[in-house]
Amino acid sequence: MATSYSQKGAYTRRICDELLTKVMCIPETLGVIRPLVDAVVEGEGAGEAEAVPPVFLAAGVVGGAGEEAKLLYIASKAQPSRCYKAGSISAHSSQRKRYILPYIAFHPSILMKSTHRNWESMGGGGEEGGAPLLAAWSWEGCPGCAMERRKESCAGRIPYTELFFVGLTTLASSLPITCLFPFMYFMVRDFHIAKTEEDIGSYAGFLASSYMVGRACSAIFWGIVADRIGRKPVIAFSILSVVIFNTLFGLCTEYWMAIATRLVLGSLNGLLAPIKAYAIEVCQAEHQALGLSVVNTAWGFGLVIGPALGGYLAQPAEKYPQTFSKDSVFGRFPYLLPSLGVSLFAAIVLISCIWLPETIHKHGIREKGIQIVKSLASEEAYWDSPRKKSLLQNWPWMSTMVPYCLFGLHDTAYSEILSLWAVSDRKYGGLSFSSEDIGEVLAVAGASLLVYQLFIYRWVHKFLGPVISARVGSALSILIVSTYPFMTYLSGAKLSLALYSAAMMRGIVAITASTGVCLLQNSAVRQEQRGTANGVSTTAMSFFKAVAPVGAGILFSWAQKHQDSAFFPGDQVVFLALNLVQILGLIFTFEPFLVLPVVEECS
Asked: How far apart are the first and last CA of the chain?
């Protein structure tokens, strides 16, 4: 039986009273909103039979510049005549579904608009739904609210200053991960722990993976800490750990010492989880893709430039004898200079963290609102919201974990194999490069990556979106990596052109794929879970990245011993294994493996 309009009106008044008096807790708005509700419910001036039940859009910002628009459908199965926008989120009702999302009280900056046709005559703002009834209201002394006010005052401008700091801190954290790759082969050799030359790759793999093992053990902890005390303290402490333990790594004279310092550095450097959340929280909704791409750009840039620095600065007494003597500290510790260079850069970034604004909210309105709305939820059976569930029940977020981890596994294995393959002898299927040669290749690849992310990626994201860009980037990466084994037949200018081009293109498509997946991850959770969510995903990815160097090192050692295989030469097996991992990651970007949040399009 159809619900009468008077019944709808009574229900509307009751729910609005609950929200206004208990949830919003802003007394000065009651005199403004209640007459409006009464006018709409009674159908004043509606005329004819078009008494459209009120549908309120509450676009409260959950510390993320409107990415979580809250839809409050008051009337039973109402069908508004138009669509209205809150930030970049389009909102409308459906004849099939009706939601009252329990996030109305998560943040006090609440805008309320009505779809009633006479909204404009009642003080609204015209065709697009009217002006807010209440300006954003925030807590004094709350850094999260201060950031919200700053974003509102920017009027849609890109926060270049904040993103610059995000890029610097991310770069300082990522440089130590791969700066050892060009000289890792020679470092393990100098430790005299490998019995044969073919065994060096296996020991190098364990050394490279020790950092990721440490990070895997602590990433969730740092994510929780970032959600509890703030992003800034975790970021600053992580950079401090780089300054100390990366310097100690350059002073190592034994294999176990190198393993231990890398393990501790990975455990204490918990920056990746909070910096992703931070990059989104300093941006308005329309710039969040750019914010996350800055993180991935700086991270990818560091993973590429790190080996370049290591290649140029390692063993300086041998490469630059006119500047560094063998009796100097850099002659006695041939791998100190690249480590010290990274640590000095991290020290400068650590000082700049003083001016880094905090973004997390430090007041209790969320908890109060949650309890109130839970009590309302018990009265209506049709309340629903996938975002109120725990992370393990958040299937859109969970489904991104597999491609995220597989892409991370592939990237780490690729970085190590490229360095080992390039410096190995041609009789083993390598290129016989020096550490300086591979450093030049990676430096050019890093520069191209920076240009791409700053000037091109935003248009790729706008045109393709996160899902398609992840698929396209992954597919192109497979094609590019397939060309590497055939470069051993080239030399001179042809080899340089092929290798430089492949390294640049592969870096670009890899960062495109990983950024798309990261955007899907962070858009699937709300702010108070974002640090923990990134911590969990970082832990999972770190386990894969810990396995990657070990597996890549063992596979590379096996390949060198089977280079003369009649069926499949060893170097081709190495790159085939890389592509199999990437193919698996590509498969998991398609349904039913990837679950996307339900988003209803405006008709």
From this structure: 28
Closest to 138 in 3D by CA, of 168, 116, 110, 117: 110
Pull the structure tokens for residue 472: 């396209």
What local confidence, expressed as pLDDT, does residue 578 receive?
93
Is the separation of the CB atoms in 265 and 176 below 8 Å? yes
Q: Are 541 and 404 in contact (CB under 8 A)?
A: yes
DSSP classification of residue 601: P
Structural domains of the chain, ranges and CATH numbers in brackets: 5-137 (no CATH), 148-420+427-587 (1.20.1250.20)
Q: What is the pLDDT of residue 1?
A: 38
Token pair belonging to 346 = 């991290």
Rounded alpha-carbon distances, angstroms, from residue 171 to 13, 87, 352 = 54, 31, 13
Question: 71: closest CA among 88, 93, 87, 96?
Answer: 93
Contact of 540 with 517, CB cutoff 8 Å: no
What are the phi and psi torsion angles at 543 (to 5°)? -60, -45
What six digits make up the tokens of 491? 């030399």
What values do phi and psi take at 380, rounded to 5? Answer: -130, 130
Q: What share of the chain is helix, strand, coil (3-state, %, to 5)?
A: 65, 5, 30
pLDDT digit string, tens, across residues 352-407? 888 888 878 776 544 444 444 444 434 443 333 444 456 777 888 888 899 999 99
Which is more confidently placed, 195 or 333? 333
- DSSP single-letter state for residue 490: -
Name the nearest CA neighbour of 414 among 551, 282, 541, 321: 551
Within 10 A of 106 (CB to CB), how many other CB atoms are there?
26
Q: Both tokens of residue 194? A: 């490998």
**Three-class secondary structure of residue 29 per DSSP:** helix
State how far the Cα of 284 lies from the Cα of 154, in Å rounded to an integer. 9
Task: Kindly report which listed range (162-176, 180-194, 366-380, 575-589) carries the lowest average pLDDT score.
Answer: 366-380
Q: Give the chain's radius of gyration (CA, Å).
A: 28
d(CA 129, CA 117): 9
**Token pair belonging to 537:** 């995903």
For residue 98 the two structure tokens come to 């009706």
Cα–Cα distances in Å, from 397 out to 67, 69, 138, 422, 521? 15, 18, 30, 38, 5
CA dist., res. 412 & res. 303, Å (int): 9
Residues 6+ apart with CB under 8 A from 161: none
The number of beta carbons lying within 10 Å of the beta carbon of residue 206 is 19
Token duo for residue 264? 């501790």
Residue 386 and residue 252: Cα distance in Å, rounded? 50
Listed residue (149, 171, 102) closest to 373, CA to CA: 102
Q: How far, CA to CA in Å, does 142 sit from each of 222, 251, 309, 370, 371?
A: 22, 43, 41, 19, 21
Tokens at 81, concatenated: 């005549």
